[in-house]
């Protein structure tokens, strides 16, 4: 038997917009809608026209999508009004969207308490509203709100609601776990029972993640027969979020039994856009991508233990469940105190250094990494610093500038308005091509002040750093007491979109920060091909690890 078509419905722009702290602009919505269309999503729910100015403006000038069917969201007509005399329903029907998804009650408890009407009247609301959408020439979808709770409380009434929508012409009847509290075994059982009344190729699933089971529940529903899956990018949504399409899509496309029983509109080439699309949403929301996210996170295919790395280099399937390239991700070989020579060689290869495994410098570099990690460094999260350490050992990093001295002053004082403020001032003295340059800078903290002063004038290197930005700064105290050793991790980026991490360790937090900052600047200068300032003798690594 051939595979059945499974349709993907994205509600990032509607249900995802209900996430605490998320506020999409109209342009944000258009950007994300086009990205979803390029990914191969079948339905893009753009929002609820008439519910707020942003959604109304979005639907007033809808984007021209190539594949996805733009869908407007709304609710069934209100009690006491006809479908043609309900402004909310009319607003949904009169948009430029080709489909309309209406939410209605299917739990008798909600009908009685929230709506205060009879069960029969609720069924009429559903049928009238779906019929109105169909008569407008648009595709009709019915979201059966609280369906699983409603089915378990009163299965006969819940099924009546579904069949009313089905008979009125709804293309899809979507079973919603609105409270997110149902578990996979119950979802699978109930969906199988529902298919006796509504065919599976007319059923969809919409799950919330309040028990961390939204993806599992969606997969269970597919096994039971539904042929539409709803979800959001990165699982955003109200409360604990929605089913994460970024996890669902590759599982449906690449994993048995789903790849054998259903097919989606996601091509192999489009699947490679999954990681960039996931990260695009994070960029729009101005937040860092979750590095531990399944499939698309930077750690999803990261290998740290020497035993793992050795096996992965022989055959990646030893420790990888799918090829990272299939979803637009890539493999990362980490270096740490748990590393072996395989880690070092793999990481050197990733940064473009081809070294013979028998080269004695490999073992010495491994010893140096372990020695440094013993005193507090952590290179598995600071690969830019590791790259500089390795390249310096191989005489590949020029000396761009020397820091003669720096000074930081933190002062609490009253400003001209009489407000008590704290200001950091830094003075940095550097040498470039034999010329001493001294710069001063202010900042809202010592590191910010040092960064400002250092980049204020780096001579011939200043233009290389014009787009350099520090995006994150993490401090960890490694030992207790006032003389504690501190590790600082700095994340940087520039207009290329690359993000890199550098590390510094010292009993003095400013020293540790400055070392990480210098590594960040040096990484950018090296990557961008900046010319050397002076000839430099390679740093000689110790032949044995020292404590």
UniProtKB/TrEMBL annotation:
Q: What family does the database annotate? A: Belongs to the alpha-IPM synthase/homocitrate synthase family.
Q: Report if keyword tRNA processing is assigned.
A: no
Instruction: Give the matching CDD domains.
Output: DRE_TIM_LeuA3 (cd07941)
The pathway noted for it is:
Amino-acid biosynthesis; L-isoleucine biosynthesis; 2-oxobutanoate from pyruvate: step 1/3
> Which Gene Ontology BP terms does the record give?
isoleucine biosynthetic process; L-leucine biosynthetic process
| Name of this protein | Citramalate synthase
**E.C. designation(s):** 2.3.3.21
Any idea which UniProt keywords this protein has? Answer: Acyltransferase, Amino-acid biosynthesis, Branched-chain amino acid biosynthesis, Isoleucine biosynthesis, Transferase
Gene Ontology molecular-function annotations: (R)-citramalate synthase activity; 2-isopropylmalate synthase activity
């Amino acid at each position: 038997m051939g595979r059945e078509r499974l349709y993907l419905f994205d509600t990032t722009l509607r249900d995802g917009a209900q996430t605490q702290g998320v506020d999409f602009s109209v342009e944000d919505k258009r950007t994300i809608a086009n990205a979803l269309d390029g990914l191969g999503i079948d339905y893009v729910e753009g929002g609820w026209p008439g519910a707020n100015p942003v959604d109304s403006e979005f639907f007033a000038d809808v984007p021209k999508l190539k594949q996805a069917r733009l869908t407007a969201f709304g609710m069934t007509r209100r009690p006491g009004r006809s479908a043609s005399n309900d402004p909310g329903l009319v607003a949904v029907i009169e948009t430029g969207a080709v489909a309309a998804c209406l939410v209605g009650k299917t739990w008798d408890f909600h009908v009685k308490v929230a709506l205060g009407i009879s069960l029969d009247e609720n069924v009429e609301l559903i049928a009238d509203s779906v019929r109105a959408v169909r008569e407008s020439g648009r595709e009709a979808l019915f979201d059966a709100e609280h369906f699983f709770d409603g089915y378990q409380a009163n299965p006969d009434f819940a099924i009546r609601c579904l069949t009313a929508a089905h008979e009125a012409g709804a293309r899809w009847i979507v079973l919603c776990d609105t409270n997110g509290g149902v578990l996979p075994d119950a979802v699978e059982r109930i969906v199988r029972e529902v298919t006796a009344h509504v065919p599976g190729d007319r059923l969809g699933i919409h799950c919330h993640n309040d028990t961390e089971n939204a993806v599992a529940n969606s997969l269970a529903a597919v096994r039971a027969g539904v042929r539409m899956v709803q979800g959001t990018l990165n699982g955003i949504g109200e409360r604990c979020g929605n089913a994460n399409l970024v996890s669902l899509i590759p599982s449906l496309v690449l994993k048995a039994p789903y790849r054998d029983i259903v097919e989606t509109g996601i091509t192999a080439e489009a699947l490679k856009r999954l990681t960039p699309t996931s990260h695009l949403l994070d960029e729009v929301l101005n937040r860092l991508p979750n590095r531990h996210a399944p499939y698309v996170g930077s750690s999803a295919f990261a290998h740290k233990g020497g035993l793992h790395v050795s096996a992965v280099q022989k055959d990646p399937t030893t420790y990888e469940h799918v090829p990272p390239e299939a979803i637009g991700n890539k493999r990362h070989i980490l270096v740490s105190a748990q590393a072996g020579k395989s880690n070092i060689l793999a990481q050197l290869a990733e940064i473009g250094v081809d070294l013979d495994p028998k080269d004695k410098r490999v073992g010495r570099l491994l010893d140096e990494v372990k020695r440094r990690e013993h005193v507090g460094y952590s290179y598995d999260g600071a690969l830019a610093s590791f790259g500089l350490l390795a390249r310096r050992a191989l005489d590949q990093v020029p000396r761009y500038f020397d820091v003669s001295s720096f000074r930081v002053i933190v002062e609490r004082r009253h400003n001209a308005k009489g407000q008590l403020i704290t200001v950091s001032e830094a003075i940095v003295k550097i040498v470039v091509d034999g010329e001493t340059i001294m710069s001063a800078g202010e900042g809202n903290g010592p590191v910010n002040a040092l960064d400002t002063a250092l980049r204020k004038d780096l001579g011939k290197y200043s233009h290389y750093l014009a787009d350099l930005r520090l995006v994150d700064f993490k401090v960890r105290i490694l030992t207790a007491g006032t003389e504690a050793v501190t590790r600082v991790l700095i994340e940087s980026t520039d207009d290329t979109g690359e993000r890199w991490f550098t590390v510094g360790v010292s009993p003095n937090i400013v020293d540790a920060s400055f070392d990480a900052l210098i590594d960040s600047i040096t990484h950018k200068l090296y990557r961008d091909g900046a010319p050397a300032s002076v000839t430099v003798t390679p740093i000689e690594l110790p032949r044995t690890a020292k404590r």
